[in-house]
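Supplementary notes for students who missed Thursday's class. We covered one full example, reproduced here. Read the sequence, then the structure, then the short commentary at the end.
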Amino acid sequence: MAIERVEIVGFRGFSTRQALSFSVPNGDPGSGLTIITGANNSGKSSIIECLKARGGYQSPSFTVGARNAAVDHVEIKYFINGTEERVVSLKKGSSESKKVDVDGNFHIFVLPSRRAFEPFFGRGSHSREQHLGNSHLSPQRSAMLGDFQYRLFNILENQEAFNKILHRVLTFKPEWAIDQSDQGQYFLKFYNGEFSHTSDGMGEGVVSIFAIVDSLYDSKPNDVIVIDEPELSLHPALQKRVFHLLKEYSQDRQIILSTHSPYFVDIPSIINGANLARVVNTGKGTEIFQLSDTGRTILDKLSKGNLYNPHTFGLDARELFFQEDGIIVVEGQEDVLLFPDIANQLGTSISASFFGWGAGGASNISYICYFLNELGFKKVAGILDGDKIDEIPQLRDDFPNYYFAHISADDIRTKQPRKETRGVEGLLDSKRRIRDEHRESTVNLLTELNQFISKQT
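Structure (token representation):
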């Protein structure tokens, strides 16, 4: 089974009905990912809460703060395998709701952004099924995980499977156990070399990784796993390893991420079928914008095959999905570097952000504007070189709400003619395939490289 879409109205910032479609895995890495981006207070966590609202044995209560004041009536629709489910307020102005046609056998594992847990706890063991059965929407956003400490007892019984995944993320192999104090309280004992400390002294990053791995280690194909802000308290290197793990699991599971980190926006995954959504609080309410199949095709075109502009969708460009409105798209990296200097020379400034290191050529500006428009960016400007003036009328026709202009010279920088250079035979041929005569030496090089990197210090 798979969740295909959710529709929300009346919950928190959702004053008008908004829909979000989810990716269904197709066997390719990243294909089951749905990546939700947006600024703080835009409504990303509200979507996560709506997914949690269908869980538990009872219908949720929507407090005054959780109901949108302009609507005062909550309706959340879930489309699962072509079947419609609903969680809906009993009446306008009431906190109470009812579940309509909700399949109690279909569960969504929701991991909130607040992943601390009580360092000293009682004894209990919750299987995945018990955890999901007890999962429900709380009246207030809690600073603590609900029953994670009881999941630890369950993990302890299957520690080998858990540690196998944990060790793929952490650079060291942690040893841990559950111990009991003389006062009868249980705690997590964490070993680092010859030393140990309790769960009271565990870093927030390690706690977060424990919780993320817990959501995965006993999951099954076709499960749905939702993680709010997986990057919290994690070093960028750990973020990349966590994302690689989630990308692998999303080959046969639906994994829904709400994130502020560009390390969790992966262009190859989107090309493979992952969904990318941007949530915006317009001042009139929360809106959801989502990349279409056409936008996915454009990303595929822009991210492949251009050796001279490989950074078109590098990390700097992916930061775009987390920026506020006001984006300038220029042709190349020289424009990004030199326009601020030009503004400084003229005693002024540029009050907008540049798209990455440029579009990779004037012909790509229309493609960049296409998916910016799909993702709900309202203030976008394109600046072209003077020799590309003929392209501006079409850009203005295609994107009438955006601003397009050209500089008064053919290029931003005066350039001398290039001297002819001699040809060079490379490792790859003209079709970018390795030449036969270089195969053996390159295999040896990569083998030695991997042995060096993996060598214990």
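Commentary. The longest strand covers residues 3-9. Residues 425-457 form one domain. If anything here is unclear, bring it to office hours.
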